[in-house]
Predict the structure.
Amino acid sequence: MKQNIKAIALFLFTTSFLISCSSDDTAAIDENTFGEAQLYFDNGVNGDKLILGASYTNSNNERLTINRLNYIISNIIFIKSDGTEYVYPKNKSYFIVSEESGINTINLTDIPAGDYKQIKFGLGVDNQRYLEGETAQQEFWDYATSLDMVWTWSTGYRFINFEGTFTSDSNPESINFQVHQGSNSATDNYREIMLNLPTTARVRMGDKPSIHIIADANVILDGINKIKLSDNINQAGTSAAIMGGENLVKIAANTQAMFKVDHVHNGSGTEH
Amino acid sequence: MKNILFRLMAFSSALILLCACQDDDSYEDIPVNEKFDFKIPDRFPEIKQDINSNYPTKWGVALGRKLFYDSRLSKDNTISCSFCHEQQHAFTHHGHDLSHGINNLEGIRNAPSVQNLIFQTDYFYDGASNSMQMLSVVPIHNPVEMDETLPAIVAKLKQDPEYVKMFRAAFENGEVSSSNLLNALAQFMTIMISADSKYDKYVRNESGGNFSSQELKGLELFKMNCASCHATDIFTDNSFRNNGLPPNLNLNDLGRETVTGFIEDRYKFKVPSLRNVELTAPYMHDGRFGSLQSVLNFYSDGVQNTQNLDPLLQQHSKAGIPLTNEEKEALIAFLKTLTDYEYIKNPLFYYKT
Amino acid sequence: MKKLLILFLLLNQTVNAQFKNLLSDQSSLTDAYFLDDCDACGCSASGGSMGFNSMLSEKFIGVRYMYQKYQSRDGVFNNSPWIDENFNTVQLWGRIPVSSKMDVMVLAPYHFLNREKMTDSQSLSGLGDITLLTFYNLHQTQNDTATFHHKILVGGGIKVPTGVFNNKNNGSINPSFQLGTGSWDYNLATEYIVRANNFGLNTTLSYVFKTENHKNYKFGNQFNYGSTLFYTILVDQLQLVPQIGVAGETYQANQEFKEDVPYTKGDIFFGKLGIEAGYRKFSAGINVMLPINQNLTGGRVEADYRLAFNINYIL
């Protein structure tokens, strides 16, 4: 009897903890407060990490050595599950990601506290913004110039600067390639891209979620449209350049699939 | 005695302090800026650029003019905009088929006229820019023209107190910056309107607008043969066309295709405005024709069916525009009525360097 | 005497299985690849899946040393480099009977963790999470002469968040590099042992309920299973018990703020091998576990092997 009581008491003691546990209730969001967020662009090629100077072969059977990958990210919008959007102020919403300069992180401030399930951003500079020619845009112009993100012989931005060398069945000797995506006065190649966040990005005062995005450089030429560098070699045979025409329209379609959110870190101090 | 001395010292030191305070340069008055008053001609087509975001102001225009004539905009401080765009030749490079820029490097194009820009949608023969505020970047960056960058120019201008003062007066943020520089140039080019030629006086029924019978005939011929491309009172329809010029293999200029990349744009060049054409020889994108006579000879006998030749030049059995000698002379007489002598002498567009 | 020894051996196997469950807590914790918090191998390290081997007595106090090797991907790409992670645990443990049918078990781990990142190396040491368990003997074959002897046990327990976890140990490397989970976890188990002659087969199932910690992180609930075949050899006062078996663990997805975290579901299947020796009041054992099949955190973490040594003093 005594032993049974002891046993029961012990059992009860042990299981009482089951009841006592409780988790914190999620605090209500104070919409009058603001927090920060970070977008981290992790550049890759077809599932592998992008390493400048390393080679890979794409499905066009061309072997590329990438030496430069820079692109413009702009007009960032945070979207909640009910569809309400927070549009990051346009005059500070233009950024450049540059692998060679080690610029992969976009830090955003003064975002209204909330739970965000999607983000949207533009790849390049929207035509309206470019034609507005506002003061802030010119400062971005200087910044873009320093990172080789402007056309040289006409006015306008390069949305993507993708360069390196390559070999193919047509050119067994390695020659340069240059892919400069952008708009010109004939075509507007600016596109918006919407991404789902696998877990909610919780922006709070003192919290800074970090959204880890993977960018796949391979889809620029090897996406839903296949663009062969060997089809774009100049007459002298010294290099391949893709800087205008229908190819840019195709690239704009390809790059819709260039980005994907891998994960979201929540909390503070979660920077890479 | 001591008391008076003390008071005198106190008073004089106060006076000195007062004067010293007033001598501070940073509190110098910034001249008041105001909107620039200019007239939009009634008969012109609608304005194609957004001038409200950068509306010309008194000091903005003054600054833009000074910059237009300033060779510090080039890398070695020798080439200004006015070097290739000379006022007395309606802002073209007199006698030069192709212009030379920095280090005597030669380009592949003829300097186009700077006039009536706000009524146009695209600039340069290949449409390298469609924005008034941005277009100055093109010659500034071109390595055979000015070979310079905006930040470098800004650094030079910041050393010049005159510029510092003018930038402060012209723009709200008062900064010597690339954006303000481009905007000042754009404001200056905005007010450069040419609309007082004999032709204009004729259509407005003003004195000085009496056309001779030859000029009238020329006008009629122009409307029939030329106005489909050189349309409206600015004498261009803002389009890009291939007018059948045989390509110069030395220059290999692909025209609009250079900018857009579309093969359908190969050998197409911007239809230029014919205003002041009497003053802007030589003619065409590469300045190959020295006279209006040779231009018209080309249209009657020289047009080649090159890739993307404009359909408007394929309306007859032979490509081009059939014209008799008499017709050509009448056309030339008419074209001379497009010269605006006030435009080329207007002190508003001149700056003595 | 023989009967008693066998009984103890079986009981040891039971606890062995229990510990295996708790150690498997560790591997579930490694699945938290991208998380702020510890899902850590090292955290609970009640660590028994390597084998508990106090075969001689159900009453003991002992010390066990466990080593676990993991590799995790430093990056999100297919060619991101693998980092070695070494988890060393020294554990004080004891098993105390409170009645003829009931035992209480305590496990108190102390961890030494280290790993080599691309840029620097990291190490952590400290107290881990303490575990308390209760077992109840539900049924046992009473007839000694029967060919097959059966025993069924049921039990439950809790793991207390006494180990520290640090928010700073996160990033793209396996953030299960922690001393504790920060949460209270609960465990239910059942064990079935059947023996005949000198052979025995021990089969254990357990389920771990995990709760949300104060960083709003909850590890996925976990199901463990295992079966060990053992054989007893008696030579004078020395006993030897070689053993061989399999064990497996499956994890549900972890949750952060009640949302499923991607890449945190997983499963792993081990083969295990070990031997124990006992002499008078002391016993010692060694046990090794090798993964046969695994799919942890979408392939971004791999378990290598687990090794354990222990020395016990019989009460």
Q: What stands out?
A: Chain B touches chain A at residues 50, 53-54, 121-122, 124, 126-135, 137-138, 141-142, 149-151, 173, 177-180, 182-183, 186, 256-263, 265 (CB under 8 Å). Residues 101 and 145 of chain B are 4 Å apart (CA to CA). The longest strand of chain B covers residues 240-241.
